[in-house]
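User: As part of a screening pipeline, I want to sanity-check one entry by hand. Below is the sequence and the SMILES for L-homoserine. Please return the complex as structure tokens so I can compare it with the automated output.
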Amino acid sequence: MAVYTHLGAEDMAALIAAFDVGELRSAKGIAEGVSNSNWLIETSGRDGTGARFILTMYEYRIDTAELPYFLGLLDHLAARGCPVPRTIHDREGNLFRVIDGKCVALIEFLPGVSVSQPIPAQAYAVGQALAQVHLAAADFPATRANGMDLAESRRLLKACGPSGLAEIDAALPALVTDALDTLEREWPTGLPRSVIHADLFPDNVLMLGSKVSGLIDFYFACNDITAYDVATTHAAWCFSGDGRTFDPALSQALLAGYAAARPLSDPERAALPVLARGACLRFVASRAYDWLNTPRGALVMPKDPMAFARRMAFYADPANAAVFAAA
Ligand SMILES: Nc1ncnc2c1ncn2[C@@H]1O[C@H](COP(=O)(O)OP(=O)(O)OP(=O)(O)O)[C@@H](O)[C@H]1O
Ligand SMILES: N[C@@H](CCO)C(=O)O
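Assistant: Here is the complex for your manual check:
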């Protein structure tokens, strides 16, 4: 359940009145998501025929100094035809407002549902949409460093401590030590860089059938190796949830969809196994940290770090490098 802050009806109506979107008709808290408070807002619309929006209140996890990057990126991509929600600017032209010391933004509502068991046609469409974002962001003027890079994975895993990691799974301490050492040694340099989404899991993609209707949750977006985003998306889409089963049909479709819009170069393709291992380690690290630091009985269930430790082992196995050969 992710509505951390109560906003009374009068406060909500006053807030919505700061935007030129008609009068507030309803505001319903959205249960999905863990980082921010989100509401589905219905208004009369500017012409009285009704309109829907997502209102997001940024809670503890987001540095609000970075909001212009995240929200400006949505506007930039939407203007170039990417399926991302536009930010609704307030009557004074601001991208976000501050209420009770917290930043809030009103964002276009996009139709669609997040799939839990993707089919190849959907993976193909997601690959294509990801490439479209990489290309469309080429002239986005702002930059942001990746706050979840290898150094941050090392820091988070160190904070877990060997005993904390062993509490999750006896094999985990050795697995992450080996992965960190190898990845720091072998991390590629000189590959093309761009804006990347960095968290394009199925729950961050809205779909209508096999069409992508929305890419959402750009709050990890940053400038980094472009193929790293392909690797992250591959890890997020091509396995069963527990990471035990790899689906070659989803993999082929995702990579083919991506290549249809932005063909990978030979060096990018060759780097995918190590990039994918790095992507998995990033989610092992954040999940392990949350696993050990989420209070018992909290509203949000921590996600299983081992689901990504298994994927990491898959990518580390040279026998599986062929998965990317035809990318
Ligand atoms: N533009 C949009 N159009 C339609 N629905 C949206 C939109 N943005 C968000 N949602 C809905 O709100 C839910 C929560 O959004 P989101 O995933 O951005 O929340 P969050 O708390 O920031 O996420 P997370 O915890 O995954 O980082 C989504 O699962 C989706 O159902
Ligand atoms: N998508 C991430 C959460 C954001 O870091 C995960 O599934 O672990």
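Points to compare against the pipeline: The two ends are 38 Å apart (CA to CA). Residues 79 and 86 are 8 Å apart (CA to CA).
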